[in-house]
Batch of 2 targets.
Target 1
Amino acid sequence: MEPIDISRSSKLMVDQHGIFAPQECRRRADELAAADDAEGEAVWEAIRRAAESLLENGPPQDIPGLPS
């Protein structure tokens, strides 16, 4: 997966899951690991790291799950 795709996917995950996006990415990576899909697991781990970065670097106020 291209870096731009990782970035877009992480943004979508944060939009959909708010502060829980990294946990959801980890869950999906774990499912793929259990299915012996190392490539899929690596993609979801990259998306997780990007989502964490988005959340750590001052997420916009419209992200669901953030305290007011």
Target 2
Amino acid sequence: MSENAYIKLVEGSEQQTVTLDELKEWFSYYKYITSKTGQQVEWNYSSKAFPYEIKETTEQSQDWFYLASGEDRYKHIILGVSKEKIILDDETEKIQSYIQITLPDSSTYGDKGKANEFCKFLAKKLKGELHLFNGRVMYYYPRR
């Protein structure tokens, strides 16, 4: 059965919406900074740190894409953006954006570890509310 993690963009977040193109840019930036770590230690770390490439389906979906790896311990991670309707404490409704990270049935434990790392990176950069695969919640935004 597939597993999901969510990064919800709440009131205290850096931004209130996110697009698929922005998500792809964050992915590229993450790969870049992990490759810099390899340069500092004089080791080709970029191929191991986050061994994924963006793959898009033929249907050109506007709300998701997947990351595929050619390494033997890694397979797939699916990333998407969406919105949900939430009810606030004062009974008013609000539209809230979120990023969904899905591990399909074919994913490995290596994929789960890399997905957790990337989720934490994104949540920290966006100051979001991270709902991990195990159901726990991490708050990266200033709480009152």
